[in-house]
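Workshop exercise sheet. Pairs work together: one partner reads the sequence aloud, the other fills in the structure field after running the prediction. Swap roles for the next sheet.
Pair: D.N. / O.F.
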Amino acid sequence: MSEDLIKTQGQCRCGQVTFAVSAKPMITMACHCTGCQKMTASAFSLSSLFPAEAFTVTAGEPVIGGLHGATRHYFCGHCLSWLFTRPEGMDAFVNVRSVMLDDAQHYQPFIETYTDEKLQWAATGAKHSFSKFPPQESFPQLLADYAAR
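Structure field:
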């Protein structure tokens, strides 16, 4: 990943909510769970995990949508684009929808999750696949493998 990707911008479809990220992603992923399928109206969601301190909303006020629980999914209140997620118990991270980044082409999924719920014809090209979410103990190695690629 180029040095240009250390700082990037993103926005919702209508442009009312914008954000900036000042770090490379820690990992990129596709999620095939039926919840992500329904929230994206697609076969899977694409996301990139960043340290929370590297993420800033620069304009607009995202609203919570999707499920209204401990994991918070943020959307543009106008166009309803799903922008990012702050996962439960992981306040040090923000999971940004990769397609909302200005340079989305560069965020190919490294892992894919919930493949037991995937649509048979859906393919992501991810290097690692998991039937559910990867076990916590596998993350240090996955993050190291992603950083080394």
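Discussion prompt: The CA atoms of residues 86 and 94 lie 5 Å apart. What would you look at next?
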